[in-house]
């Protein structure tokens, strides 16, 4: 029995089976236990040569064109969401090339026939794999024949129920960042989110923030989240921060330091500051949770596995959700920890 056949028995994708049998936390514990139990029941053991899900393609493509994988963007190249995703695209490109695939990029934008053009180009180029980038997809690909392709989505909101999603674990990242601020002496932490973040991400981040506050003994009510808009005046933010007597700011994404500089706010002297989701470990100096290569590598592994096993979107199956955890990075916007290094390492 190969992995594709065993995945069909479990009702999940081969990528989910591979992660579950490696006890990878990207798959929820109940799902991992169910798959591991089924593997024992049917005496299934993965082929050791497929431990990374797919074999590296050793063929030298000199005269023959290498196969390709596509990334589709919901927005134009200059849009904020497209730009934010580029660090993960760069990593995805490096990783997918190791599996023997080139990358082609397509921008749907506001074209009424954008989905039809994407489908035409993929069929012409015989591109079998597709990754959907961050963005507001809504009705853009309503008539797309998903069942013809191997598809993975990086967008946290559901585009189609049968499509597997690979996403940052925002709930975990929020919890890690809050705990890191607390061991550095923060007592009143205020949450700042960009006004246009996806609804599912908003629910996870705000939910994790509120849950953490209320599970503490003797807690005081949390400050309501502040929704930040690029270019907006700073006075409402300063009024919110002062009203709720905050000694730490927790932002979903990095905010330009000029916004804080207008208020004369210095980190960490006047307030500590941490970021829940930092895409690039080489960029900026904020303390926070870094995703870095994790998302791009996971997307490449998932899509390459689907292509290796000939897996296409099964419209009758609920898509899997694979979550990527980040790592805490010590920057210049927080104080040194008050607790021991052993306690911090356990976060």
Care to describe what's here?
The chain is of the alpha/beta class and 347 residues long. The protein has three domains: 45 residues, no CATH class; 132 residues, 3-Layer(aba) Sandwich (Rossmann fold), CATH 3.40.50; 139 residues, 3-Layer(aba) Sandwich (Rossmann fold), CATH 3.40.50.2300. It is built from eleven helices and twelve strands. The strands form two sheets. Strands 2-1-3-4-5-11 form a six-stranded parallel β-sheet, sandwiched between helices. The relative contact order is 0.16.
List the helices and strands and how they pair.
Layout: H1 3-10, H2 14-21, H3 29-42, E1 68-73, H4 80-98, E2 102-107, H5 114-124, E3 129-132, E4 150-153, E5 164-168, H6 170-182, E6 189-194, H7 199-214, E7 226-228, H8 235-243, E8 248-251, H9 257-261, E9 272-278, E10 287-290, H10 294-308, E11 321-324, E12 327-329, H11 341-345
Q: Nutshell version of this structure?
A:
The protein is of the alpha/beta class and 347 residues long. It has eleven helices and twelve strands. The chain folds into three domains: 3-47, no CATH class; 68-168 and 293-323, Response regulator (Rossmann fold); 170-290 and 328-345, 3-Layer(aba) Sandwich (Rossmann fold).
